[in-house]
Design a protein that fits this description.
single chain; alpha+beta; Alpha-Beta Plaits; 7 helices; 36% helix; Transl_elong_EF1B_B/D_CS; translation elongation factor activity
Length: 218
């Protein structure tokens, strides 16, 4: 490795010294060079190596899938930091290319907040689950002279937001009398089953009573 054996104090110290003035191993964003160095390091540095520890925690905050998307980057050889003659003032035109610890911490916090916001936005866009029920109704006529086809026709004229009528059949109940058994699917928040039964029973020339034969949540 460019920093020597990162399993040794000497290697970690070299890395820490490099990161005093650098946010990342190569360039100004995380790259594969950071991942290679991170993996060679193996574990968090000792707290005395504060710059290396700060960098390690930042790289560790990325998920494995995010790390694979980092661009490539060359791992630089460790070089001695340039010295400044004692008493020489810095040139006013010099540009500080490296963020301070506080700036790096603020950047890491900003990235974390952006990820949380993106996750919350993605979650909020998921369609809400609509609770529905499957209901089978037994619609009983007055006698064997009731026009069952007309009775079913009247039942199906009932329209409600969230109500869908399904298949139906005539079921014998004795003495030549049949009841109408009809299926429906309703959205629980929109349709009142009691109201639906009341609406059917309004066809009093055809309907004697209405029972719920089956009620199942979908």
């Amino acid at each position: 490795m460019a920093f020597g054996d990162l399993k040794s104090d000497k290697g970690v110290a070299a890395l820490d010294d490099f990161l005093k003035d650098h946010s990342y191993i190569s360039g100004y964003q995380p790259t594969q060079a950071d991942i290679q160095t991170f993996q060679s390091l193996g574990k968090a540095p000792n707290a005395k190596y504060s710059h290396a520890l700060r960098w390690y925690n930042h790289i560790n905050s990325f998920a494995p899938a995010e790390r694979t998307s980092f661009p490539g980057g060359a791992c630089p050889m460790k070089t001695a930091a340039p010295t400044t003659a004692p008493g020489k003032a810095e040139d006013d035109d010099d540009v500080d290319l490296f963020a301070s610890d506080d700036e790096n911490d603020a950047e890491a916090e900003k990235i974390r907040e952006e990820r949380l916001k993106a996750y919350a936005d993605k979650k909020s866009k998921k369609p809400a689950l609509i609770a529905k029920s499957s209901i089978v109704l037994d619609v009983k006529p007055w006698d064997d002279e009731t026009d069952m086809k007309e009775m079913e026709k009247r039942v199906r004229t009932i329209e409600m937001d969230g109500l869908v009528w399904g298949a139906s059949k005539l079921v014998p109940v004795g003495y030549g009398i049949h009841k109408l058994q009809i299926m429906s699917v309703v959205e629980d928040d929109k349709v009142s089953v009691d109201l639906m039964v009341e609406e059917i029973e309004k066809f009093e020339d055809f309907v004697q009573s209405v029972d719920i034969a089956a009620f199942n949540k979908i």
